[in-house]
Amino acid sequence: MACMRRPDLPPPPPFSDDWALFLDVDGTLLDFADAPHRVHVDPDMLEALDVLHRRLDGALALVSGRSLEQLDHLFAPLRLPAAGLHGLEHRGDGPAAKPPTPLRTLRGEARTVALRHPGAVVEDKGATIALHWRGNPDAEPAMRALAEAAIAWLPGYSLQPGDHVLELRPKGANKGAAVARMLDEAPFAGRTPVFVGDDHTDEHGFEAVLAHGGIAVLVGDRQPSCARHGLASPAEVRSWLVEAAQP
Ligand SMILES: O=P(O)(O)OC[C@H]1O[C@H](O[C@H]2O[C@H](CO)[C@@H](O)[C@H](O)[C@H]2O)[C@H](O)[C@@H](O)[C@@H]1O
């Protein structure tokens, strides 16, 4: 896949009712906040998502690093199709495996570090754990050191870098595999897939939709990227959705 520096990406083509729309959440639909629970969910965007979900006959999904539980809480009263934990969690699958003991040990140690660095956050998502330092960048070295030491005791786990965060999560699943899985099923199958995302983990989603003849839309200016279309910011994504939802 040719992933290049493309500084000036054109906006996505006009919205089409034959799309299957896959949307990343943080940094795409939502502006970043100092901590995961401090994000604001724009009510106009929620209404637009509801309209577009129905207009696409259900083929609109959230594809996020957050858990399904978090997504349903944030996007309530909507309960959209979704893949959580970077593709690890799918609706209808059984409960995720219990977190291994070293992950629970790490959680305790990371909470101690966070207490020493007010603003740092330990986000426990069950099978995965995210160590955040956006609210206190001084916590980054200690959080990194903890995560890097813990990974040696976590066979089957990998370190997932993100935006001011390092996550420990089971290997294997990614957003591209989640998109491919949904594209095999109704109501997504047979539609033109479109993935909108901002982060490194979204590149897997971009590759999956491009492999199906679809459209990849990068939010922001991270480079290099496989995306061939772009929107400048989450605010621009929200305006784009609200406009597309007009009758
Ligand atoms: O795949 P995404 O939907 O983009 O989720 C990626 C991670 O997003 C969240 O963390 C990020 O957003 C927080 C709120 O703005 C911010 O405080 C943090 O610095 C960002 O990394 C979420 O908390 C994670 O669980 C997701 O994996």
Notes on the structure:
The longest helix has 16 residues, at 101-116. Helix content is 32%, strand content 19%. It is globular, with a radius of gyration of 18 Å. The strands form two sheets. Strands 4-3-2-1-9-10-11 form a seven-stranded mixed beta sheet, with helices on both faces. A four-stranded antiparallel beta sheet has the order 5-6-8-7, with helices on one face. It folds into two domains: 19-88 and 173-244, HAD superfamily/HAD-like (Rossmann fold), CATH 3.40.50.1000; 101-170, 2-Layer Sandwich (Alpha-Beta Plaits), CATH 3.30.70. It is built from seven helices and eleven strands. With 247 residues, it is of the alpha/beta class. It binds the ligand O=P(O)(O)OC[C@H]1O[C@H](O[C@H]2O[C@H](CO)[C@@H](O)[C@H](O)[C@H]2O)[C@H](O)[C@@H](O)[C@@H]1O. Residues 24-27, 32-36, 39, 64-66, 123, 130, 132, 134, 162-165, 167, 199, 201 line the site of ligand L263DTV3.
Write the SSE topology.
Elements: E1 19-23, H1 43-55, E2 60-63, H2 68-74, E3 82-84, E4 89-90, H3 101-116, E5 121-124, E6 129-132, H4 140-151, E7 157-162, E8 165-170, H5 175-183, E9 192-197, H6 202-211, E10 215-219, E11 229-231, H7 234-244
Parallel strand pairs: 1-2, 1-9, 2-3, 9-10, 10-11
Antiparallel strand pairs: 3-4, 5-6, 6-8, 7-8
Helix pairs in contact: 1-7, 3-4, 5-6
The structure holds the ligand O=P(O)(O)OC[C@H]1O[C@H](O[C@H]2O[C@H](CO)[C@@H](O)[C@H](O)[C@H]2O)[C@H](O)[C@@H](O)[C@@H]1O.
The site of ligand L263DTV3 has 24 residues, from strand 6 and strand 8.
